[in-house]
Amino acid sequence: MRFGEMVIILFIIALAIATIWGPKSKKSPLIYSLIVLYIVTVVQIIVEDCRWQMIPCYAASVILTICIIFRKNEKKPRSKSMRRWTAWLWTTVLFFYASVMVALPLLLPVFAFNQPQGPYSVGTAVYHFIDNDRPDEYSADPTDHRELMVQLWYPSEPETGEEAAPYMRDVGAITKGLEQALSFPAWTLSHLGLVGSHAYSNPPLSSTEEEYPILIFSHGMTGFRNQNTFQIEELASHGYIVVGIDHAYDAAATVFPDGREILINKQQLSGFEALDEHMTLWTQDVSFILDRLEQLNGQDEQDRFTGRLDLERIGMFGHSYGGATAAQMLLKDSRIKAALNMDGTLYGDPMPSTGPNKPYLQMNGEKSIDKSIFDNSLDQAMAQSGHTREYYQEFWEETVRRRMNALQGGGYTMTIPHTSHMSYTDFHLFSPLLPNPGENPRSVHRIINEVSVAFFGQYLKGTRNNAMDELSKKYPDIDLVQD
């Protein structure tokens, strides 16, 4: 709950109590209090903006106004016991109404990300790229080509940006796509457009270093390029240029500069065969973006990144299908030197039994690798899909085999207790209704950030070669080990 919202709610409760229990003959103090309430409300709306979760609160101001203005002195005073009984009745109504006023802003909060801990300020810029060598296979127009929206977060000169960037630039479109991932109606998440970030729009790249290493970020199916802002801003503050990609048609929504919206394609991809084949689209997206970064390094029209991208130090990280994409790119593209996979089943070309022979880190959700949880969900999965129990058992065994292969040759693995698949994104900050029992999203994010900074620092920057070992000792319960 934001400060202004909390002030208004407390003011309304106090004024309502004074109206219920105060003497009937003294109306003026209540009217003056109403005027102050309206002034505070207007200031709150101007400073913090309004949202639908505050409608009961705003409505309470109107109800109080009616009750106070049309309040009349009793011609025939009631007995003291009757007055007290009536007051307690209205107090009970106030209690339940106040519960609604408090619950809605708390359950669907305008949350704030933790301040990045690195030495750099963070800037961000958005680019629109078109791959003229690839047709848009989902478009009805055969002349269309594959288009991608890409956002860069980078170390910036302090406080020189245009303004603090919003968390979501196209909240209406994105929340429509998120309905499928979170089962929350789009309108309930509209307040996410009020969430801010710690990145400023379009400031100059920091002059502290000549070049900065690059990290590519790939979201999960139904996700979006900003879905790991907690992690992206932290990495950028530690001196990385982070490049987030919206994989059009698989992202919750992709919105182009001319206003065109591409919502998630509701194709039902399931099983290794379909998802292995679909991986080609995502790896081609990443390869194309790597090519465009090389061009950007040669000549940036805004002269921000020209000659400043360290193309010899590129890593990649991703969540879910994006994590699998990071593993595939580590295997296929020599430009990717290290990869971090956050709870992604390893779809795509089979990982060799010797591993990728490059630095690789697999982060697991505890519930994602718990066989008992998988077995308990089989009956529901079979009823929904029509697949047999043997089909799902083979799927599980293949998932484990691929994960074990990827860790061969020195790969790292870690599992944070109580985490589920979405724990490795921003999503559990959206509402306290979403996290798993026993999980503290802020603590989980802190561990993810520390491990991410240590991993890429050790294998891209060459700093603190024992950083991962230190974290395994600092957090023994996450089971951070190297095979």
The secondary-structure class comes to alpha/beta
Mean pLDDT: 91
Fraction in beta strands: 15-25%
Shape summary: globular
- Helix count from the secondary structure assignment: 13
Please state the CA-atom Rg, rounded to the nearest Å.
27 Å
Separation of the first and last Cα atoms: 44 Å
According to DSSP, the number of beta strands is 13
Strand line-up of the largest beta sheet: 3-4-1-2-6-5-9-10-11-12-13
Q: What is the succession of H and E elements?
A: HHHHEEEHEEHEEEHEHEEHHHEHHE
Largest sheet: 11 strands, mixed
Low-confidence region ranges: none
Estimated helix fraction: 40-55%
Keywords:
483 residues; 11-stranded mixed β-sheet; 42% helix; two-stranded antiparallel ribbon; alpha/beta
Structure description:
This protein is of the alpha/beta class and 483 residues long. The chain contains 13 helices and 13 strands. It has helices spanning 3-21, 28-48, 55-69, 80-107, 171-182, 229-237, 271-298, 321-332, 371-376, 378-385, 389-406, 441-461, 467-474; strands at residues 121-135, 145-156, 164-166, 196-201, 212-218, 241-246, 253-255, 261-263, 309-319, 336-342, 360-365, 412-416, 481-482. Helix 8 (321-332) links the parallel strand 9 and strand 10 (336-342). Helix 1 (3-21) runs antiparallel to helix 2 (28-48), helix 1 runs antiparallel to helix 4 and helix 2 runs antiparallel to helix 3 (55-69).
